[in-house]
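Q: Okay, next protein. This is PhyH-domain-containing protein from Aureobasidium pullulans. I've checked the sequence twice, so it should be correct. Can you predict the 3D structure?
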Amino acid sequence: MVLKPVEIFKRQRPEQALRAWCRTTRRTATIMSPHANSEAIDSYSPPPVKAVIPSRLYAIADTPKVSSLANICDRSVTTKNYPLASEVQKNIPIYNLAKYNPDKTAANNLQDEWYEVLANGPGVFVVQNMYSDQPLLDETNEAFHQIIEREKSHTKGDHFAAGGKNDRIWNSFSKHGLQDPSSFVKYYSNPWLARVCEAWLGQQYRVTAQTNIVKPGGAAQVSHRDYHLGFQTAEGCSRFPRGMQHASQFLTLQGAVAQSDMPLESGPTRFLPFSQKLDSGFMAYRLPEFDQYFNENWVSLPLRKGDGVFFNPALHHAAGNNTSQVDRSANLLQISSAFGKPMEQIDAIPLVKVCWPEIQQLYKAEGLSDRVETVIAAIGEGYPFPTNLDNRPPAPNGMAPANEQDVIREAITSNWDTEKIVSALTQMRVDGRP
């Protein structure tokens, strides 16, 4: 069978067909013009396609669709997805810590599951019995009460609620330590706090805390995302490239310890499970239609005194309105990665100065136990940078100079007195300056 020229082209690969066409064209051109450039025709290639580079930014004018968020949130999970959870309610996994050992090795599987929940799952989980020592919670609440009474003369604003509606203690972490070193050391030496923080942030995290007490009649917050980019204006947020917007959620862990029972009518935090997966969510949450979707679809769980709840800062959430007759009290925990800037400044030196006898007592009773390591991690800065490397070079066999936690650990194991450890930390700070 003799194939026609068109059929030959059809049966050839595109590049073969193009070369055959060029040869035919060359012969025709040679007949028409003896000066035709046959080499140029043989080496012909189509012009390159100009690449379209997408914008690195989310533009304010490019309003995302609520349907995108709805599709993301249209999921459900069970204990089959998270087998270590005691139960899953309203798409929120619940873990009863009374069943588990906070030892690092034993808790490793729990941490894997928590990471998965925060990164790819609902974005929030509850840990029951995180603080089972009820007298300790009472001591802590008394310390908070004394701080609040001392600060009553100043009306403070809230991020997403009107000032004057709540009792708020900014930097309750430092103020707690200075007010009552005994309950502070016991509270922040809880190994479960370390296990949760390490699951999302790794080591050398920085703990900050703010206490919030919402009284009966307290209004709900508007839905939002949290620090860092959650505390920017829409215009300010739009200046951060997409990659930084996605990375922001991995720099912080949000949490709260229930300092009182929180029945549903008291307004515990409302969550929109899976909403942290919306890439443009730091731009979208401010839009009225997204707030409306949140208000139509949020879920909330009651908490008992001593329970904890932890969530991805990119999760859309809001504190609820308190329609009960009791105060809703929470110690809000905001834990930062070693590679991020905390929202509040923590000064370890005055805390070490007042808490040193309590830390020494704990060390004498337990040695360098998990509880001792946890309180060291809470008080001291674990990341040594930025610093002055002329004055504080790395050790001969090290990659980085000592950090505050290293010095505190050496001091506690070497039985330094208060004056010596305070002097060492002060000198480290002086040496680190330009």
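A: Here is a summary of the prediction. Residues 340 and 397 are 26 Å apart (CA to CA). Residues 27-33 have pLDDT under 50 and may be disordered.
Q: Noted. On to the next one.
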